[in-house]
Structure formats: C-alpha cells, structure tokens
Amino acid sequence: MTAATVRVRDLRYSYGDRVALDGVSFEVAEGEIFGVLGPNGGGKTTMFRILSTLLPVAAGRVEIAGADVATDLAGVRRTIGVVFQSPSLDIKLTVRENLICHGHLYGLSGAELERRTGAGLAALGLCDRSASYVEELSGGLKRRVELAKGLLSEPRILILDEPSTGLDPGARRDLWDYLLELRRERGTTVLVTTHLMDEAERCDRLAILDRGRIVAIDAPDALRRKIGGDVLTIRSTNTGILQGEIEKRWGIRATCVDGCVRLEHPDARGLLREIYEAFPSDIDSIQLARPTLEDVFIRETGHQLWSE
Amino acid sequence: MASSMMLASYALARREVVRFLRQRNRVFGALAQPVLFWVIFGAGLSPSFRTGSVGYNEYFFPGIIVLILLFTAIFSTISIIDDRNSGFLQGVLVAPIPRSAIILGKVGGTTVLAVGQALLVSIAAPMLGMSIAPAGILLSIPVLVLVSIALAGLGIWIAWRMDSTQGFHAIMTSGLMPMWLLSGAFFPPGGVPRWLAVVIACNPLTYGVALLRHALYLGNPAATASLPSPALCLAATLAFACATLVGASAAARARTAGALP
Q: CA A153 to CA A150: how far, in whole Å?
C-alpha cells in the first residue's frame, strides 16, 4: 500500500448538543477507493462536509494530500474534486455553460478549459446534450453532469456523497466502471459515502460509520470473513422467547433485529435443522444465507442499516 | 492568484447576467414596477406638489432610477438564497477561490444589470421633456455604478445567512423600501419635521440619490441648490459601498452549519 493521502485523526463535530462525529480516525491510501458505509444520520454527510471543506474542523485533524484542512483551505480545495449528493448545477444554464463556469472557478480558461470540457463531455457520454439546459435533463443525465463537473479540475482526490442517489442500476454500474477507470488511468483516489450495499462491495476498503463512530474498517471480503460461517435469520412472532431458548440450548449469541432472530454459526446448515425441529410452532420462516455486508453491519452495530 | 480570482468573479458575474436575461419575468419586475410607480405617483402628486425649478414628475425621476437599482439589487441578492437552496452555491463554496471573489462576482453581475436597466430608462428623460441633458446621463453612469455596488453589497450582506426568501421580503418591505422612501427620492427633505430630517440625514442612500441629482443636473444650480454638497455626497456614497462590501465579505467568510444548503 502506498502512502496515505487522506488522514483523519480523532475527528469530532457537534450540531449544538447533537454529536454527529464522535472521534473518527482513518487513512486512505493514494489510488484507493475508500467507502464510508452507514445509515442516514450516522455522520456520513457531516464527514463529507468536513472533508469537502464546507464545514470547519471542530476538533481533531484532517490532512488531505499533505495539506491541513484547518490551516490550508486553499491547498485542500485545489486538490479535491467534490460531487455532492444534492444537485449543484445551475438549471438555467446549459451543460456546457455549467462546466465552463465551474472551470473558471478553478482557474481554467481558454484552450485548456475547452479541451477538458470536451474530454469530460465525451467520457460521460454527454456530447450530444452539451447545449441542453440542465433543467431539461433526466435525473441520470444530471448526475453525469455533476460527475463531469467534479472531475473537470482533474482532482487527485475525488470525494463523492452518495453518488448513486437517483440512479437506476444500469447507470449506477456505469458510474462505478468510470470511477474504476479513473483510478486505473490517473491514479485518482476516491472517497465515497454510501448506504447501499452493492456500492460498498465495490470499494477497496470500507469504514462502517454508525452514530458518529467507526465500528469496523477493512476490505469488504475481510469484513465478511469476520462472521464465522453463515447467517440464520428466523422470523417469528415470539422473537424474545426464541432468542433466549436458542442461546440457552446451543450456547451461542443470537440477536433480535426487526422481528427476526439472527445468528451466525460455522455449521449454520446443521443448526437450521435442529432449531426447526426444536421449535416447529414458533417459526414463521427460516433463512440460511452467506454473510453480506449488511450482516457485518448488523453484527457491528446491533441494528439494521435502515432502522433509525 | 489575482487573475484567477478575477476569472472566478467574471464567471459568476456572467452567470448572473445570463440567468437574468433568460428569466423574462425578472426583467419585468425590476423595470416595469418602478416605471409604473413613476407614472402613477407622477400623475397623482404633480398637482399638489410645489417645488423650485422642476415639477414632481421630474423631481421623482432620479428617485425612480435609484428604485430600479434597488429592485435589481434585491432580486439578484435574493438569488443567493435560491442558489443556496438549489445547491449551486455549495459547489462554489468548495472551489479554491476566496469568498470575496464570490461577493465580487455577485456584485459585479448585479451592477451590470442594474446600471443597464437604469440607463434604458434614463435615456428616455430628454424625450419626456425633462431638463436632463445627455451629458448629465453620461456623467450619471459612475454614480449609478457606485450606488449599485453599495445596494448589491447590502443585499448580499442581508441575504447570505438567510434560508428563506420570505425572510428577505420582510426585510425588504420594512427596511429597504423605507430606506428608499426616506432618501429624498420620493419627496424633498426640506421642511419635514425635525425627527424625519434627522432620519433622512442619517440614511446613506440620501447621499446616493443627491449625488445622482448632482450628476444629472450638472450646470443647473437651481435644481441642486438644496442638496448636500457633491463632495459630501461622493464621500458618503463611497463609504456606504465600502461598508456593505466589507459586511458582505465578512458574512460570507463564516463557515457554519447554518450556511449550508
């Protein structure tokens, strides 16, 4: 692994009494695709806003490409490209006008800006829409313009907040193919926040952020391997009793999540049979599955990604 | 650094102008309403208005020009709130440019629009039988620029922290419109009660309106006899513009959660 290009140490942020980030630390290596997975309200957006320099560093330290976000704002801003979750385009301007305006903000002009605008439009398949007003574009096309805008300054580090918002699965796949291509061709470091499992799967490494803290950080495969064996999810009307009985009889840890009893076991298949035979009338359904990142999330946080 | 800052300001100013020209209702709002005011109040108040050398229609005319500047500044600065809510501003805020470049862009774009519209109306003055000479209109251009900068800066200063355009409307009707009414634009300050005279003398816009009259009526001492001296008007208006620009830049430098989209 090459040297870290993003260093976050003991980052804290509060909105009044509400703690959004409660001591977050991680490092992202040059050329890495790093994901921050977490539920809405878990602190992802606050972290994105601090890394993208919208919010100041309240406590802790953030370094991006060697520049300290607290002291060298301009240096950080020159290095990063930012793609926001919410729209940041001027809908009364055309696609090209948006890119030209953005280029000027980054000190680009003349032939160089023309070249980059043309290349960006081509790379994202927007050439035939360059003269369209943004308000006439579909949601997916708008996202592509957002991406072209974020990449126009050819940033070393690209920071994206929930980039798949409003994209259909095909467009989402295109987006990720493009991010991988960027990394391959330019060595761009990508830092992405998401609450989508399939998006998290495509990251090199993943930090799981819950209630302002990082509860796990590793490659997606390694995170899954932490779960010893497969996962059983038992739907029942008596989850409380069932959980206690299972823990007592087999001496394993089970959790109640959203009307289900959930447990991991190296021999989940054998256990499934035993449990089913022991409590035939208490079980509505029982599911055996290989662990997913969602299982990792539940294991680390004790609740589902979607629950509040 | 300086040139990249100018480039950024130019891009933002240009965007203001392009957006304005694509939204026809804004052209109507900023231009038609003041002209309508002029026609209605001019016709209504002329018979009961007694002043030195000019009739009410003509007295009110420079006031209407300043109202055009004020309305354009208000509409443009309200767009900061729209930019924040639409998300456009967040992309500008993370760009490697100082906040003052953002203010300069907004003020620059607004000034181009305001002065352009004011001139469109000004050039009609000689045709409407007023004693305003073309040279006076030419001389008024730098005054229009200066007053526009002051008003745009004021609007941005107020609008930067706001998250709803309703809030701005409240300030517009309770603060900005009285500022215009009590600037010598609507009625001459001579002979008003003492408390009102004090308010008018403390109103920075009073000196902008007076400076415009000095420019339009250069070489016509009778029309400007009761006004503060040109030097005082110029100094006060310069100070007004500097103060609002500093205020707007200071407001824009704060990075707080409240300033986010």
A: 7
- Which one-letter DSSP state was computed for residue A130? T
SS3 A25: strand
User: How many H helices and E strands in chain A?
Assistant: 11, 14
Q: Where in chain A does DSSP place strands (E)? A: 4-15, 18-29, 33-37, 59-64, 67-68, 80-83, 157-161, 189-194, 205-210, 213-218, 230-236, 254-257, 260-265, 283-289
For residue A225, the Cα-to-chain-centroid distance in whole angstroms is: 20
Contact assignment for A77 to B95 by CB distance below 8 Å? yes
Answer for the pair A159, A189: CB distance below 8 angstroms, yes or no: no
List the single residue in A77, A90, A97 with the smallest CB-CB distance to B88: A90
Alpha carbon of A110: minimum distance to chain B alpha carbons (Å):
11
Give the C-alpha separation, A46 to A263, whole Å.
33
Interface test with A, best of B94, B99, B256 (most A CBs within 10 A): B94
Give me the residue label for tokens 């009110």.
Answer: B60
Would you list the DSSP string of B125-183? TGGGT-S--HHHHHHHHHHHHHHHHHHHHHHHHHHTT-S-HHHHHHHIIIIIHHHHIII
Helix (H) or strand (E) holding A183: helix A169-186
Q: Hey, CA dihedral for B62, B67, B70, B76, is it positive or negative?
A: negative
Contact between chains at B90 and A149 (C-beta distance less than 8 A): no
Token pair in block for residue A194: 């998401």
pLDDT digit string (tens) for B55-73? Answer: 888 889 999 999 999 999 9
pTM > 0.90: yes or no: no
Complex confidence, ipTM: 0.87
CA atoms within 13 A on the CB side of B14: 14
Q: Is the pLDDT of residue B260 over 70?
A: no
* Distance of alpha carbon B61 from the chain centroid: 15
pLDDT at residue number B254: 78
Residue A235 backbone dihedrals phi, psi, to 5 degrees: -90, 130
Helices (H) and strands (E) in chain B, counts: 12, 0
Chain B residues with CB under 8 Å of A89 CB are: 87-88
Better-scored residue on pLDDT, B157 or B190: B157
CA–CA distance, A163 with A146 (Å, rounded to integer)? 9
Chain B residues close to A74, C-beta within 8 Å: 96
Which residue has 């289900």 as its token pair?
A260
CB contact under 8 A, A101 and B12: yes
All structural domains of chain A: 4-223 (3.40.50.300), 228-290 (3.30.70.260)
